[in-house]
C-alpha cells in the first residue's frame, strides 16, 4: 500500500475496487463536499458495504417482530438481550463467516466463533454456550472433505481453547453450497439484567481506549470481500482472511468482565468487520458525538503501516471503549494484569466529525452522521417464488420402508454428527445438561438464577430445501422447528436470532426469496411469542452466478424451569407406549425420502400451521412439567420412522410401530408434516386425554422394547444395523481424506 | 481439606474444579493467580484444565515456568499433594513433577467424550475411596493426551504402582477402541514416586453431579477429602 494521505486523485477504477457503485460515489462527494482521500474512501467503502450497512435487507428487516415483555434490547446493538428472571439476562446472537471459511476453512471458522463471542461479552455477558449451523457442498465435491475438516477443527480450536461449551448445531450437505459454504456461529451469554453494556459513546472529552491484540495487516477489506460474489480468483483473496488467537480472546473476556465489574466503562464495542472504522463510527454515531483518533497511538504489530491499513485492519481480539475520565490507570492495570495491550487513542468531541491524526497531520476528516446513517438503502425489485404444486404420495412406487430407513439414517443429511461434536468441548464449565445429538443443547443456570433448577436451551435450525420451494413456508418452518426443538427438551421459547444467508439481492428472484422467508419468519415469531432480537445478513453467496439455497438460519433460546424434568432423547426402557402428537397427512413434497430414495427434489414443502405448532408445544411443556414424558423427540427430516429410529439409537432399547391403513404407508412413515413429536410415555391414556382437551391430535403408534425396530407387518431391522449405517457414514467419509492425501 | 486451584492464563476448567472440591470438602478452594509467588497454607494444590498460554508452544510448557510454579514445586517436594487434570497433567510433566510426556492425540483431533477408567492403584491418598480394578466413567476433552514414556520409565511406573488409571472398555479390558488418544498401554494417569502427585487427562470434576450424566468422579474428591480432613 502506498502513502495514502497524499493521493494522486480518485479514479473510477479506484472507486470500483472499493466496491462502491458510481451513484454511491456521487453520494460520497456530496457528503464530503470535496474529493475524499484514499483513507476516507476506504472508510466509506467498508461502512457502506452490504456486510456493515444491510442496504438491501434493511427495508424488510424492519417488518420483523422485535418486541416483547421479555426483550431488554432488540436488534441494533452488538447482540440481543432478553430477561430470564431472577435479575439475569441472556445475551445472544448468530453471525455468519461464510466467505472467509470457504477461502481458509480453519481460520475462517475460528474467527467466526471469536467474533460472535466478542459480540456477546462486549455487552457484559459471560458466554455460556456456543452453537453452529454449517452447510457444505455435495460430499462428492472434491473440496468438501477439506472444508468439513478445516471448519470443524477451526470451530473446535477456538471454542475449546476459550473454554465455552459447543452444545448443539446442525449440518447439511447440498451441491448448491459447492462453491459457497455457510458457517453460522451463535453464542449465548449470561449477565445481570441491570449490568448491560451498550455501544453509544457519550461525554465530550472522555478518553477513547483501545484494548486487546495489536493491529496488523490481516483482514483488510474483509467486509467488502464478504459483500461480493466469488469469481475464479477467490483463492487470491486469502490475505483478507483474519487469523484468530483464542488465547488472547480468553484473556480479553476475563479482563473485560473484570473491568465491567467497576464503574469505568461508558461505552464499549468490539472491533469486528471493518475494524476500527466501524467500531468508532458506530459508537460516535449512536451517541451523537464526534471523535478524534490519534493513529500514532494504536498498538501495531508491524512497522510501516499506513492510516488506511490501520483504519481498515480486521485484526481479531480487539475492543474499543469510552471510559470515564480518571479511570485510565484502573483500566490499564486490569489489562496489564492480563498481558493485553492498552492505549488511549483519542477523545470524544462535540464536532460531530471523525478526525484522524497521523504524524502531526490530519489523515482524514469525515462527518459521522451523514456517513453512518445515510448509508444507501435499497428497496430492490423482487419477484415472489411460485410454490410448486403438492406432490401426490400415490404417485410414488411402493418400497420396503425398512430398507429405505437404513439408507436414510446413514445418508449425509441424517448420519450421526458424532465425528463433528466429539471435536468440540461440549462439557467445559460443568453445566451441560443436554449434550450434542439431542433436540437442543441445555446448560444449567447458576444457583443465583432459580436455585440451580433452571436451564437455558438453544438450537439452530433451517430447512433450505423448503425455503427454495416456498420461501414463506420455509421461513415459518425454520422458526417452528427451532422452537419445536426447544419444546422437546421442556423449554419455553424466549426469543430468536436470525442469520439470513442468500444469493445476490440484485437478482429479483433472490430478493423474492429473502422477502418471502422474512414474511414467514415474522409470522412464526409472532405466533410463537419469540421475537427476533439480533441477527446478521449474508448476501452475495454465489459463485460464478450460482446461488446457494436460501438459508435463513434461526437460532432460538428457551428457558427450562426444572432441568431434572427434561425428558430423555432416547428409548431407555421397554414397555412404554409411543404416542405421536400432531396431525399426519403424509406430506412427502420436498421430503428427504423423496430426495434420497427417489432422487427427486419436488413438490410443495409441508405447510406450517402456526396455531397447531403452538398448541402442541404448550401441551408438551405441560406434560413434561408433570413428569409424564420419559423420552421425547421432534419429527423433522425423514418423518416418523426416522424419529423412532433416532430415539432407539439414542437409547438402549428398540420399538415396535403400528402402520395404520388409511394413509399410504410411505407417506405415514416418511411424511414430514410439521408440528409433531414422538413421545415415550408410561400412561398413554393420560396423554391422549390431555391432548384431546388441548385440541392437539394424538395417537398411540407403538411401544418400546426389544433390540430392533419392528413394523406391524412383521418386518424388522436391528438397532445394531441402524447404528452401523448411522454412525458409519461420516467417519468413513472423512477417513477417505487421509487415504486420498 | 483446604485446597488451592492455580489459575494460569488460559485455564478454563478452574470453576468446574472449584465446584467439585467444594462439594467434597465443604470448603471453598483458594484461587491463586499464576503471577503470584506465594501459596496459602493448603492440604492440596490443584492445576486445572484449559489451554494455558493457548498451548501455542507444547501444551503446558510455558505454564510450567510460571512464577507460581516455583512454590508449587517447593510444596510438592515437602509432600503437599498436587493434582493436575488435563492441562494440569501436561503442566506437571513439563515441570518435571511427573514422568513422561503428553503428545498430540493419535487421531490428530480434539476429543471430547466419555471414557471408562480403571483404577490401577487404590493404595494412595488420591484413590483411597476406590478399589483396585474399579471402573469409572468420566469425560475427557483434550488435544494432547497421548501419554508416552520410555521403556525404562514405563517399567518403573508399572513395578512401583505408578500407573494411576488406564482407559478400558465396558468389560475392563485395555482395548485400542477404549483408548481415546493413543496413550501408551492405555495410560490415563500417573503418580510420582511418592504417590503424592497425580496427573490424569480425563475430567473427574465434570462427573460429580447427576446432571452431568454420572457421578463416578466423586470417588476421587471424596477420597481426597477423607484422607486430607
Automatic annotation (TrEMBL), chain A:
EC number: 6.3.5.3
Chain intervals for the UniProt region annotation (Disordered): 377-396
GO biological process: 'de novo' IMP biosynthetic process
Domain (Phosphoribosylformylglycinamidine synthase linker) ranges: 17-55
Principal location class: cytoplasm
Entry annotation: catalytic residues: 51, 97 (proton acceptor)
Xref: Pfam families: AIRS, AIRS_C, FGAR-AT_linker
Domain (PurM-like C-terminal): residue spans on this chain: 204-358, 573-707
UniProt: ATP binding residues: 54, 93, 498, 535
Highest taxon, organism lineage: Bacteria
Positions of Mg(2+) 2 binding: 119, 270
Residues the entry annotates as binding Mg(2+) 1: 95, 536
GO molecular function annotation: ATP binding; magnesium ion binding; phosphoribosylformylglycinamidine synthase activity
Biological or metabolic pathway of the protein: Purine metabolism; IMP biosynthesis via de novo pathway; 5-amino-1-(5-phospho-D-ribosyl)imidazole from N(2)-formyl-N(1)-(5-phospho-D-ribosyl)glycinamide: step 1/2
Residues in PurM-like N-terminal domain copies: 76-190, 437-560
HAMAP family in the record: PurL_2 (MF_00420)
Family named by the database record: Belongs to the FGAMS family.
Functional note: Part of the phosphoribosylformylglycinamidine synthase complex involved in the purines biosynthetic pathway. Catalyzes the ATP-dependent conversion of formylglycinamide ribonucleotide (FGAR) and glutamine to yield formylglycinamidine ribonucleotide (FGAM) and glutamate. The FGAM synthase complex is composed of three subunits. PurQ produces an ammonia molecule by converting glutamine to glutamate. PurL transfers the ammonia molecule to FGAR to form FGAM in an ATP-dependent manner.
Subunit structure of this chain's protein: Monomer. Part of the FGAM synthase complex composed of 1 PurL, 1 PurQ and 2 PurS subunits.
Name of the protein in its database record: Phosphoribosylformylglycinamidine synthase subunit PurL
Organism listed in the record: Tistlia consotensis USBA 355
Lineage: Bacteria, Pseudomonadati, Pseudomonadota, Alphaproteobacteria, Rhodospirillales
TrEMBL record, chain B:
Keyword terms of this UniProt record: ATP-binding, Cytoplasm, Glutamine amidotransferase, Hydrolase, Ligase, Nucleotide-binding, Purine biosynthesis
EC number(s) on file: 6.3.5.3, 3.5.1.2
InterPro entries: Class_I_gatase-like (IPR029062), PRibForGlyAmidine_synth_PurQ (IPR010075)
Active-site positions on this chain: 86, 203, 205
One Pfam family it belongs to: GATase_5
GO cellular component: cytoplasm
Main location per the UniProt record: cytoplasm
Listed GO MF terms: ATP binding; glutaminase activity; phosphoribosylformylglycinamidine synthase activity
Keyword Hydrolase: yes
Catalysed reaction, written as an equation: N(2)-formyl-N(1)-(5-phospho-beta-D-ribosyl)glycinamide + L-glutamine + ATP + H2O = 2-formamido-N(1)-(5-O-phospho-beta-D-ribosyl)acetamidine + L-glutamate + ADP + phosphate + H(+); L-glutamine + H2O = L-glutamate + NH4(+)
Pathway(s) the chain acts in: Purine metabolism; IMP biosynthesis via de novo pathway; 5-amino-1-(5-phospho-D-ribosyl)imidazole from N(2)-formyl-N(1)-(5-phospho-D-ribosyl)glycinamide: step 1/2
UniProt xrefs under Gene3D superfamilies: 3.40.50.880
Purpose: Part of the phosphoribosylformylglycinamidine synthase complex involved in the purines biosynthetic pathway. Catalyzes the ATP-dependent conversion of formylglycinamide ribonucleotide (FGAR) and glutamine to yield formylglycinamidine ribonucleotide (FGAM) and glutamate. The FGAM synthase complex is composed of three subunits. PurQ produces an ammonia molecule by converting glutamine to glutamate. PurL transfers the ammonia molecule to FGAR to form FGAM in an ATP-dependent manner.
Classification via PANTHER family: PHOSPHORIBOSYLFORMYLGLYCINAMIDINE SYNTHASE SUBUNIT PURQ (PTHR47552:SF1)
Name this polypeptide is given: Phosphoribosylformylglycinamidine synthase subunit PurQ
High-level lineage: Bacteria, Pseudomonadati, Pseudomonadota, Alphaproteobacteria, Rhodospirillales
Amino acid at each position: 500500500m502506498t502513502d495514502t494521505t497524499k493521493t494522486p486523485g480518485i479514479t473510477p477504477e479506484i472507486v470500483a475496487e472499493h466496491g462502491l457503485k458510481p451513484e454511491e460515489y456521487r453520494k460520497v462527494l456530496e457528503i464530503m463536499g470535496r474529493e475524499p482521500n484514499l483513507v476516507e474512501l476506504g472508510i466509506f467503502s467498508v461502512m457502506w458495504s452490504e456486510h456493515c450497512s444491510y442496504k438491501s435487507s434493511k427495508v424488510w428487516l424492519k417488518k420483523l417482530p422485535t418486541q416483547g415483555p421479555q426483550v431488554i434490547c432488540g436488534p441494533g446493538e452488538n447482540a440481543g438481550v432478553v430477561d430470564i428472571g431472577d435479575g439475569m439476562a441472556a445475551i445472544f446472537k448468530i453471525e455468519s463467516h461464510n466467505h472467509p471459511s470457504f477461502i481458509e476453512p480453519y481460520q475462517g471458522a475460528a474467527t467466526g466463533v471469536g467474533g460472535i463471542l466478542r459480540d456477546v461479552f462486549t455487552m457484559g455477558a459471560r458466554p455460556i454456550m456456543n452453537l453452529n449451523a454449517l452447510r457444505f457442498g455435495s460430499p462428492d465435491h472434491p473440496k468438501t472433505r477439506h472444508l468439513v475438516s478445516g471448519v470443524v477443527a477451526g470451530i473446535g480450536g477456538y471454542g475449546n481453547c476459550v473454554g465455552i461449551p459447543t452444545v448443539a448445531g446442525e449440518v447439511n450437505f447440498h451441491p448448491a453450497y459447492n462453491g459457497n459454504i455457510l458457517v453460522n456461529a451463535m453464542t449465548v451469554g449470561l449477565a445481570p439484567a441491570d449490568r448491560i453494556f451498550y455501544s453509544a459513546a457519550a461525554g465530550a472529552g472522555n478518553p477513547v481506549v483501545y484494548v486487546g491484540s495489536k493491529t496488523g495487516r490481516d483482514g483488510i477489506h474483509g467486509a467488502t470481500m464478504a459483500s461480493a460474489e466469488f469469481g475464479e480468483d477467490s483463492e487470491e483473496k486469502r490475505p483478507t482472511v483474519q487469523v484468530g488467537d483464542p488465547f488472547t480472546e480468553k484473556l480479553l473476556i476475563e479482563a473485560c468482565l473484570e473491568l465491567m465489574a467497576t464503574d469505568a466503562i461508558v461505552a464499549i464495542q468490539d472491533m469486528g468487520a471493518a475494524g476500527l472504522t466501524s467500531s468508532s463510527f458506530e459508537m460516535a454515531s449512536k451517541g451523537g458525538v464526534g471523535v478524534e483518533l490519534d493513529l500514532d497511538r494504536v498498538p501495531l504489530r508491524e512497522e510501516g503501516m499506513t492510516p488506511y491499513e490501520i483504519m481498515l485492519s480486521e485484526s481479531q481480539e480487539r475492543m474499543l471503549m469510552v471510559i470515564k475520565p480518571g479511570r485510565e490507570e484502573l483500566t490499564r492495570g486490569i489489562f496489564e494484569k492480563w498481558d493485553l495491550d492498552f492505549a488511549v487513542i483519542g477523545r470524544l468531541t462535540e464536532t460531530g466529525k471523525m478526525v484522524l491524526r497521523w504524524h502531526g497531520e490530519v489523515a482524514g476528516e469525515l462527518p459521522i452522521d451523514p456517513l453512518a446513517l445515510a448509508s444507501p438503502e435499497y428497496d430492490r425489485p423482487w419477484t415472489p417464488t411460485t410454490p410448486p404444486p403438492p406432490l401426490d404420495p400415490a404417485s410414488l412406487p411402493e418400497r420396503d420402508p425398512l430398507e429405505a430407513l437404513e439408507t436414510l439414517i446413514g445418508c449425509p443429511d441424517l448420519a450421526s454428527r458424532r465425528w463433528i461434536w466429539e471435536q468440540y468441548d461440549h462439557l467445559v464449565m460443568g453445566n451441560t445438561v443436554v449434550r450434542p445429538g439431542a433436540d437442543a443443547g441445555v446448560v444449567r443456570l447458576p444457583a443465583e438464577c432459580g436455585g440451580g433448577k433452571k436451564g437455558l436451551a438453544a438450537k439452530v435450525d433451517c430447512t433450505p430445501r423448503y425455503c427454495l420451494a416456498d420461501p414463506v413456508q420455509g421461513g415459518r418452518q425454520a422458526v417452528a422447528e427451532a422452537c419445536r426443538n426447544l419444546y422437546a427438551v421442556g423449554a419455553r421459547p424466549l426469543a430468536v436470532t436470525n442469520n439470513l444467508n442468500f444469493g445476490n439481492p440484485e437478482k429479483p428472484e433472490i430478493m423474492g426469496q429473502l422477502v418471502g422467508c422474512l414474511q414467514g419468519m415474522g409470522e412464526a415469531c409472532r405466533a410463537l411469542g419469540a421475537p427476533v432480537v439480533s441477527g446478521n445478513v449474508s448476501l452475495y453467496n454465489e459463485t460464478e452466478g450460482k446461488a446457494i439455497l436460501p438459508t435463513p438460519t434461526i437460532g432460538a433460546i428457551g428457558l427450562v424451569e426444572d432441568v431434572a424434568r427434561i425428558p430423555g432423547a432416547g428409548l431407555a426402557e421397554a414397555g412404554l407406549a409411543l404416542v405421536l402428537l400432531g396431525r399426519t397427512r403424509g406430506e412427502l413434497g420436498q421430503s428427504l425420502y423423496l430426495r434420497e430414495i427417489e432422487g427427486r427434489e419436488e413438490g410443495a414443502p409441508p405447510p406450517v400451521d402456526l396455531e397447531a405448532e403452538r398448541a402442541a408445544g404448550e401441551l408438551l411443556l405441560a406434560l413434561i412439567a408433570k413428569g409424564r414424558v420419559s423420552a421425547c423427540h421432534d419429527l423433522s427430516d425423514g418423518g416418523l420412522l426416522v424419529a423412532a429410529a433416532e430415539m432407539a439409537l439414542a437409547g438402549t432399547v428398540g420399538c415396535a410401530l403400528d402402520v395404520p391403513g388409511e394413509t399410504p404407508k410411505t407417506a405415514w412413515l416418511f411424511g414430514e408434516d410439521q408440528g409433531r413429536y414422538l413421545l415415550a410415555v408410561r400412561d398413554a391414556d393420560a396423554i391422549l386425554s390431555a391432548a384431546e382437551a388441548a385440541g392437539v391430535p394424538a395417537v398411540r403408534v407403538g411401544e418400546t422394547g426389544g433390540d430392533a425396530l419392528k413394523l406391524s407387518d412383521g418386518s424388522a431391522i436391528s438397532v445394531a444395523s441402524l447404528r452401523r449405517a448411522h454412525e458409519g457414514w461420516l467417519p468413513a467419509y472423512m477417513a477417505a481424506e487421509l487415504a486420498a492425501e | 481439606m483446604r485446597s488451592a486451584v492455580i489459575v494460569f492464563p488460559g485455564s478454563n476448567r478452574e470453576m468446574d474444579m472449584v465446584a467439585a472440591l467444594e462439594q467434597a470438602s465443604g470448603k471453598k478452594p483458594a484461587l491463586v493467580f499464576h503471577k503470584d509467588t506465594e501459596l496459602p497454607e493448603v492440604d492440596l494444590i490443584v492445576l486445572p484444565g484449559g489451554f494455558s498460554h493457548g498451548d501455542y508452544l507444547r501444551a503446558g510448557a510455558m505454564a510450567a515456568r510460571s512464577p507460581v510454579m516455583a512454590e508449587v514445586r517447593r510444596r510438592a517436594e515437602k509432600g503437599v499433594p498436587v493434582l493436575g487434570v488435563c492441562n494440569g497433567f501436561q503442566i506437571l510433566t513439563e515441570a518435571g513433577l511427573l514422568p513422561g510426556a503428553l503428545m498430540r492425540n493419535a487421531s490428530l483431533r480434539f476429543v471430547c467424550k466419555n471414557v471408562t477408567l480403571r483404577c490401577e492403584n487404590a493404595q494412595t491418598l488420591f484413590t483411597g475411596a476406590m478399589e483396585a480394578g474399579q471402573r469409572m466413567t468420566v469425560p475427557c476433552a483434550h488435544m494432547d493426551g497421548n501419554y508416552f514414556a520410555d521403556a525404562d520409565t514405563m517399567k518403573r511406573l508399572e513395578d512401583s504402582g505408578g500407573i494411576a488409571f488406564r482407559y478400558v472398555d465396558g468389560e475392563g479390558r485395555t482395548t485400542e477402541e477404549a483408548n481415546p488418544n493413543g496413550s501408551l498401554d492405555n495410560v490415563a494417569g500417573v503418580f510420582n514416586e511418592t504417590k503424592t502427585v497425580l496427573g490424569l487427562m480425563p475430567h473427574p470434576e465434570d462427573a460429580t453431579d447427576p446432571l452431568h450424566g454420572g457421578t463416578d468422579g466423586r470417588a476421587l474428591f471424596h477420597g481426597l477429602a477423607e484422607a486430607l480432613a
